[in-house]
Amino acid sequence: MSTSIGGTHRRRRKVARSDQGIDLPPSIVGYNNGSYENLPLEIQTLHYLCNLTTETEGTSVCRPEIIFERFIASISFSGKLKLYEIESRFCKQVPLNHIKPKWVCEVFHKDASFNRVTATAHCKTSCKTENGTLGFVIVATAQGEICLLRIFEDDKPAVVFSCSTGILNTCSATCWITDKGLFHVVIGSKSGCLEEWSINTNLPNYQESLLWKGSFGTQLHSVIALNDEPPSATLSACISQKCKFGRALKSHSVEVLNRKRLLQEWKAENGLLNLIDYCLWPEAGCEWRQMSEGGVGNGESITFGSNVMCHVDKSRWAAALADGTVGILHAGENDALNWGVKRNSHQATLTYPAMGISMMNLSNKPHIVCCLRGGTVYCLCLETDENESNLSTVFLPPFTNYEGDDFEFLHSFAAGNIAMIGDKVAYGDLSTDNMPIIAYVGDGGIMEVYACGLLAEQSNLVAQEFALQEMRENGTMQMLLDALQNMKDDDPLLSQTNWASAFKECIGDSTISIDDIIGDDANKYENTRSLLISLAT
Description:
Layout: E1 3-5, E2 8-11, E3 29-31, E4 36-37, E5 42-44, E6 47-52, E7 63-67, E8 71-75, E9 80-84, E10 103-106, E11 117-124, E12 133-141, E13 145-152, E14 158-164, E15 170-177, E16 182-189, E17 193-200, E18 207-215, E19 220-226, E20 234-242, E21 250-257, H1 259-265, E22 273-274, E23 279-280, E24 308-313, E25 316-320, E26 325-330, E27 347-349, E28 354-362, E29 365-372, E30 377-381, E31 391-395, E32 399-401, E33 412-418, E34 426-427, E35 430-431, E36 435-441, E37 447-451, H2 457-473, H3 476-485, H4 497-506, H5 514-518, H6 526-536
Parallel strand pairs: 5-31, 18-22
Antiparallel strand pairs: 1-2, 2-32, 3-4, 3-27, 6-37, 7-8, 8-9, 9-10, 11-12, 12-13, 13-14, 15-16, 16-17, 17-18, 19-20, 20-21, 21-23, 24-25, 25-26, 26-27, 28-29, 29-30, 30-31, 33-36, 34-35, 36-37
Helix pairs in contact: 4-6
């Protein structure tokens, strides 16, 4: 039986989607020198927290991000930025309605020509500012326009600067800000072009300048920056390459650019630099491990948004490639010349390519979180011994969709740790001020938020909320409320403690409604709510 939550329907997930090339139960994964084995993975279920409201247009491909440990950000194709806060009480009491955003900001003016958002990035400020600035978000459009938004702790985001670059068909962007107030943006196109821009935030009207531009001459998938303190910032890019082994097969590689040389050698009159000439070889012994094709996804025709990277810290980043390979890469903090996969345990192959990758602290350890298109989430621990498997945990979440139908695949994904608002609550080794969460975006722009690793007892609380929602839909809740309000003092049911306590809350209050019982003020009618749960379960 499906139960409606916030206008959607909960149902069981599909067990296997191998025929669609997007997901597979985690029975076989590749690890260590090409061997494939059944690893002792811990299978867990995510704990549903809430649904977030989204707009109708463009949200099926909106880009969720967890920014500054405070907000979940959603950026739609049309350029609408929404910032959501997650309340700690959701861990105990699942809200039955969609959660509205704390702040909404239109990135583009309504009278401006429509530009589709194709890339986003964000960075923190280096220190606490007087006006409460948490950091900046960069939004890039398909036509190469970039908009810089300042994110405040307790105020609406503001667009502070915009300019046009020479990049078309933008697919990726990365950014950082220096202690001197210089904001750097690297923006890339599908055709393989990259440009780096500097924006001086110290000037009243800001001022942008082009630092260098170049091209790989092949498709670019993503770009990321490390060591975000120029001139030592390290740039890494994921590109497509043609293999010359008798057949036209595309492979995908992660490259590291010598940014210092790019800054020194680029001249405006020279046009595009050949970025292949500025790529650094990985350190000897730290190359990508050769892994046999034991996984189902081979990356030739099934990519589904893979070839993505995420930032780990100043010297590490992670990449998920279209052949299902996931790797944790290291670079020297002051010198990118010695980079690569340092350990065998820092590379694995999943059953299918990951369409999203993020960084999360789980069980007090840093993890790389990879999500397949069908929703299966793999967690790879960063702290492992040389020959110890980094694949530790797999989450198998339920999903929702209109009319109770299975949607075919996810559109977007984000994961990380968030500081929930409200009372701080501890759950074992977890706390609501640093809760690991996962956000999914499915068909119709549905965005669902789940918590990772909550105690098993929380599942019972979630089940109670679903039962209340079902009673609301079938009219049982309204019938009980009417009965309590019209009950006589000598009714035999009042001899039972739970009925008597609920009767005292409802008698004489003709304005009470169902929303009062299960809404934000549910504590006021705690006994009535307990009676409903006892009848439902």
